Amino acid sequence: MGTPHNEAEKGEIAKRVLMPGDPLRAKYIAEHFLKDAVCFNTVRNMLGYTGTYKGEKISVMGGGMGVPSVGIYTYELYHEYEVEEIIRIGSAGALQDDVDLRDVVIAVGACTDSNYAAQYNLPGTFAPIADYELLESAVNTVREKGLTVRAGNVLTSDVFYNDDPTVNDRWRKMGVLAVEMEAAALYMNAARAGKKALCMLTISDHLYKDEKLSARERQLGFDNMIQIALDM
Hints:
The protein is α/β, with parallel strands linked by helices. Helix content is 31%, strand content 28%.
C-alpha cells in the first residue's frame, strides 16, 4: 500500500501510535521500551516502528517539526492506516511562573496562530481539544507515578523565531501554560477523522526564567513521559 510519506503496508502499524517529533527519539523508544520492534518506515528518514509493550501491539513514529509536518503524518495514520489514537510526546517552553522544568504538561486545548483550520471552511473559530478518555488516563497515570502534571491550554505556534517580541506576553496573560508547534494540527486531524488524540509535553525550557534542561536532563524527562504514554 504505502503513501508518498510512509512505506508501511496495511496492518503493520498498531491502532495506538506514540509520536515524538524527532524520528531518532522514535528509534530510541523502539529500542529501549518495545519488544521485538520492527521498522516499518524509512521514507525521508521519518522512522516508524511497531513492537509490543506488556503484550500490547504499539507503534512509535516521528512527526517532524511544525503543523505542516505533523499534519501530513497524522492524517495518513488516521485515514490510510486505520490508526485509532495518536499520543504526541514532545517538548515545550513554559510561559507561566508556576510551570517548572521537567513538569509534564497535558494539552487539554491547543490555541494556535496557524491557519490550518481554514481548510474546513467553518463559520467560526474551531477549538482543538484532547480526547477526554486519553486525557483522564494520562492524568491518573502521572499521579500514580508521583510526578508533577499540569493540564490546560498550550499554544501551537507556526513561528519559532518570531519577529514580534511581544507575542509570548499576550498568550501568557491568557493563562496559556506552554508553547509548542504541533498539537493543534493533531487535534484537528483527529476531530475530522473521528479518532482520538492527546498531546503530552515535557517542559524543557522556561521562556521567562532563562532556564533550560541539559541534554541529559531532557533525556530523563522524556523517559518519564514515554513511560506515562506506554502505561496509560
